[in-house]
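New to this. Please check both lines:
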Amino acid sequence: MRRTMVLVAAVAALGSGCGGGGAFTAHPDIVAKAGDQELSAERVADILGTAKGQAPTVEAADFIAGLWVDFTLFAQAVAKDGFMADSTFIADAMWPSISALRAERWHDTLVAQRSKVDPSKADSIYSAGETRVLQHILILTQDSSDAYKASAKRKLEGLLAKAKSGSDFAALAGANSQDPGSAADGGFLPPSLANAFVPEFSAAGWKLAPGEISGIVTTTYGYHILRRPTAAEATPRLTPFLQQVATKAVDSTYFAELNTEFAITPVSDAAAKMRAALDDRDGKRDDKTKLVSYKGGAFMVKDFLHWTQAAAADPAMGRQLIEQMKAAQDSQLVQFAKSLTESTLLLKDADKHGIQVTADEWSKMKAEFLGEVDSLRIVMDLTPASIDPKASASERSKAASLKVDQYFDKLTSGQAPLRMLPGMIAWTLRGNAKFGINAVGVKRAVDLATAKAGPMPGGEIPGAMQPAPGPAPVPGSTPPTP
């Protein structure tokens, strides 16, 4: 994912998010290791020192260390063989996309097998009137002056006159309504029950006969004109609604069947184990401690972290997501573990029924993966011109290490954008490599940076400030389950 901010700004925004795997404490002057490469406390202190007006913190130093590990593992893989990732590596790195596609395909198969929607029922729903399709035109007046409200009402009165004299209501809504979602669809709202709307809106809408247009309706949002479409207009929209209802019923039944068939049962201390795993994601990535038991298997800490990493792979929201999970109530974490177990069993079901990605889909995913890798190689200048493929392995490794060092220099000076390893590439690289982040070395780097910085402007003591928390909540940040 592209980043337009320099490294230090990213540290302040993201805080710690990389954690430490295989931590070591024997060398306080070494912050991190990756393969045969080392990151010194002095180097991290220098990087921290480029953050003008920001005090050095353990969180920032830890983030830099994790970033260095990922860049170094990637650069060394390029130096070794040009990052000739095999199909297994690509499949691991693209696991979220592959799993989502397979789950969606199996879900569509279930829905097709189990839900048969009778289109004639749409007529019955329309006649019953409990669920209605409505059109509206809205002029917003929230927090507006009386003069603006009067002007808005006059405008709507003009539109009402046009609508009642035979002008096309959908065209009027598309050109004038300030509800962008419905305006783009001729003013149509989704099929809904009366309690889906504010009382004034529902009271007016449920009085309308087919084809009838309301007067001006005032709600907390503003002024509306409502129209009840005819059966011919509404029933094509009620048929997809019936399909949605049927799909929800299929989902509910299917997951209830999974719970009954496999006797899905969380262990008593699952929440505590999940929090502990989140604090040491690299160290516990292969942990087989049971979180949820089911007939024929178990959902383990390693499985939980794999799903979590897939959801948190985007660094812009990953840190925030992890913190949200840590702060969740025990009951929420347990339910999350159960949901992930259900998703795991769903994928097993897809396997059993031969649901896999097609050759064409795999080719596209592989091309996407290679494109991301090539883009990152260019950004870091890990090209054949910089790393001679004919040189010895030792010389290529040194050249790659130099390029990582130069990339950090460009980041801290603002000469290059911060690029994170996309998707689960970093997670997959870490699973195949030896690396470590030294908590003692991290603290040493902060102490060195603090000593070099001296007193902050205004007399504050370096280290007394903490990085700003992560970005504002992102819609849809709940961990996805197929």
